[in-house]
Design goal:
It is a single chain. With about 280 residues, the protein is of the alpha/beta class. The protein folds into two domains: about 1-170, 3-Layer(aba) Sandwich (Rossmann fold); about 180-270, Pantoate--beta-alanine Ligase, Chain: A,domain 2. It has helices at about 5-15, 30-45, 70-80, 90-95, 115, 120-135, 145-160, 190-195, 195-210, 215-230, and strands at about 1-5, 20-25, 45-50, 85, 140-145, 165-170, 235-240, 255-265, 265-275. The strands form two sheets. A six-stranded parallel beta sheet has the order 1-4-3-2-5-6, sandwiched between helices. Strands 7-8-9 form a three-stranded antiparallel beta sheet. It is globular. It binds pantoate.
């Protein structure tokens, strides 16, 4: 496994990789969710590139860029056996003096996470477009946990004729259902217990859907009531939307994306489930 910090060297080594090339972009502090993407990339390609870059442009001014968990040595040890190249550029390498371009997807970036985190997706699409240009993967892998991110990146790749396939992989969960996330590390033991209510509310939505409930407001209301019973939880949004346009639904038609952002103490967590 080679660890590379410069764009020029990444480009050079890219030429020597066996095709097809699978790519997993990450912000590091890897967990089983990331590793499932890397394993799928390994299974479906001859070469695997993983990037580790905590991208400052996707964090808002009051968000956790500085405190975002980092542990490069641990990350590299986890990747060693399954990765050909780890691309780990510095902020100055990705955004040199004078950098002044953005890649922006339209309407769908204003909804859900985009409504709560203005500018977030512009930062994501700009850095992912740069990474795609540098790594030139055959396939790139993203987690379903960041459902809106995956939809937006697929749209960017299609709209801008990027020559790759964007693959979405299932969410990996803890035994109590909490979606794996690097931010789970912020939770103290009491908050960690409380966070299980998020998956509980998704399961409730799925149960109601299986029983034949199609009124989106009624499902949103029941989810809200369940979460509000947990004193440490504070809802940012609960959405039942069309899985592609991300427009809110009155009547639940499959595939519908049930998604939410909930603060547990100071930690903002997101999760979702698709009703099909
Ligand atoms: O999902 C993430 O970790 C990030 O948003 C990504 C795709 C690596 C871009 O910085």
């Amino acid at each position: 496994m080679k660890v590379i910090e410069s764009i020029a060297e990444m480009r050079q080594l890219r030429q020597q990789l066996r095709e097809p090339v699978g790519f997993v972009p990450t912000m590091g502090y890897l967990h089983k969710g990331h590793m499932s993407l890397v394993r799928q990339a390994r299974n479906e390609n001859k070469s695997v590139v993983v990037s580790i870059f905590v991208n400052p442009t996707q964090f808002g001014p009051k968000e956790d860029f500085k405190g975002y968990p980092r542990d490069t040595q641990r990350d590299l040890a986890m990747l060693e056996a399954v990765t050909d190249i780890v691309f780990m550029p510095s902020v100055a390498e990705m955004y040199p003096e004078g950098f002044d371009s953005r890649v922006e997807v339209g309407e769908i970036t204003g909804r859900l996470e985009g409504a709560s985190r203005p500018g977030h997706f512009r930062g994501v699409t700009t850095v992912v477009a740069k990474l795609f240009n540098i790594v030139q993967p055959t396939k790139a892998y993203f987690g379903q946990k960041d459902a809106q991110q995956a939809v937006i990146i697929k749209k960017m790749a299609a709209d801008l004729d990027m020559n790759l396939e964007v693959v979405t992989c299932p969410t990996v969960r803890e035994p109590d259902g909490l979606a794996m996330s690097s931010r789970n590390t912020y939770l103290n033991p009491e908050e960690r217990r409380a966070a299980a209510v998020i998956y509980g509310s998704l399961k409730l939505a799925q149960e109601r859907w299986s029983e034949g409930e199609r009124n989106a407001d009624r499902i949103r209301k029941e989810m809200t009531e369940l979460i509000e019973k947990e004193p440490l939880a504070d809802i940012d949004y609960i959405s039942i939307a069309d899985a592609e346009s991300l427009e809110e639904l009155d009547r639940v038609e499959p595939p519908a994306l049930v998604s939410m952002a909930v603060r547990i103490g100071k930690t903002r967590l997101i999760d979702n489930m698709v009703l099909e």
